[in-house]
């Protein structure tokens, strides 16, 4: 059993506008450029009617990693991310995400739900971090979960700015 990840992002925009951003390849390119870290790239993107499926690569430089991580896996941490969104169903949409790291026996997986809130839209992230390293796995999971929450907060801030600029 891994470490849970729970995060909520609130946007003062209707669900259709938030969803339109989340399935826009230009949104993703700009988001990755702004907060994706050094060398972040979109490896593959497929879009359809209100859908998107992305594969991205990001890296965390070794000097920004805790020693418990670099002692197990030296060098920069290369992260392979996948995210997908389905079309809106009324004013709701669902997505999935996953991530893995080169040379680490672990994974991050979860679901994303977009739904109306009291005002605007809520995007709920529900996932899990699992690192299969005896004795250290739980500690590393906790650190990864904390870093992911910080990343989700930065992504929420970027998305709020994107939605505001797009004249929504």
From TrEMBL:
<dbReference type="InterPro" id="IPR019639">
    <property type="entry name" value="DUF2505"/>
</dbReference>
<protein>
    <submittedName>
        <fullName>DUF2505 domain-containing protein</fullName>
    </submittedName>
</protein>
<dbReference type="Pfam" id="PF10698">
    <property type="entry name" value="DUF2505"/>
</dbReference>
